[in-house]
Amino acid sequence: MLRTMNVMAPVIATVMVVVLLVEPPALHPGERVPALRLFTARAIEGLDQEQVRDAIAWGQTGEPGWYSLHRVSPTGEQLGEQQLAGVAYTPFLRVAWAAHARRLSGRPLTAGEIPPWMSAPVVYVLLRSPVAARLNDDLGLPNVAVVPIGTATSGLSAQSTLVQPMWVSDNLAVVGRFGAAIPFSDLGVIAAYPVEVLRGDLDFVAYYRLEGAGASSSVEMRGRFDPSELRKWR
């Protein structure tokens, strides 16, 4: 489990602490448990009761942290250990953060209160906004793609992706519902994926297509998990 926190000022979701048992607004009934499994022959189940209790115990010891998406260039080079492109919250971490938030409120969270969406085998991936969006409020949500390492996102057509997100949002309430921290102020998009995407050989990309001077270009924020941090992911 990743304990270390990156050295960035955390931005706490403004709608946290009150519990946490409402489904994220972007989640539709058919998306509660992902049906499509691209990376494993056997579907990964959600947390069992023992894992839920372990996650609650973890959250009661302090801030649970997150899994870091380390920023990389479009050609695949890592841009420094402390540069985040984004973070991810597994079901274990969602439950742990909920337990942490409830402990701060003075009423411990119990395993029986954990709703199915919180422990489902889904990972929430939060990506920072590409620079272009910070300069232009009219761009809307960035596109997202999961691609092999170093796959370029430039071109006129939509970028192909190894797996489509189950839903996308830019609403901080999605994260606030389980009480987590967001470690950057320039959130671009939150995307939900089956947990099998937690691999070190994939790039997660938030990008925009920009038109200008008769040509199309791509502006992106790209991140990658460190395989060593994922060996014992929870």
Q: Secondary-structure element order, as H and E?
A: EHEEHHEHEEHEEEEH
Taking the sheet with the most strands, its summary is: 8 strands, antiparallel
Query: What amount of the residues lies in strands?
Result: 25-35%
- Describe the oligomeric state of these chains in a short phrase: single chain
Approximate shape = elongated
- The radius of gyration over CA amounts to 17 Å
Task: Please count the beta strands (DSSP E, at least 2 residues each).
Answer: 10
Contiguous helical run count:
6
Mean pLDDT: 78
Structural class per helix/strand content? Answer: alpha+beta
Span between termini: 6 Å
Total domain units:
1
* Spans of at least 5 consecutive residues with low confidence: 1-22, 25-43
* Biggest sheet: strand arrangement: 5-9-10-2-3-4-8-6
- The percentage helix is 10-25%
Task: Explain this structure.
It is a single chain. The protein has six helices and ten strands. It has an eight-stranded antiparallel beta sheet with strand order 5-9-10-2-3-4-8-6. The chain has a two-stranded antiparallel ribbon with strand order 1-7. The chain is of the alpha+beta class and 234 residues long. It is elongated, with a radius of gyration of 17 Å. The relative contact order is 0.25. A hairpin with a 2-residue loop joins β9 and β10. It has one domain.
Brief sketch in words of this structure:
With 234 residues, this protein is of the alpha+beta class.
Structural topology:
Blueprint: E1 11-12, H1 49-59, E2 67-71, E3 84-89, H2 91-105, H3 116-119, E4 122-128, H4 131-135, E5 143-148, E6 167-169, H5 173-176, E7 181-182, E8 187-194, E9 202-212, E10 215-225, H6 227-230
Antiparallel strand pairs: 1-7, 2-3, 2-10, 3-4, 4-8, 5-9, 6-8, 9-10
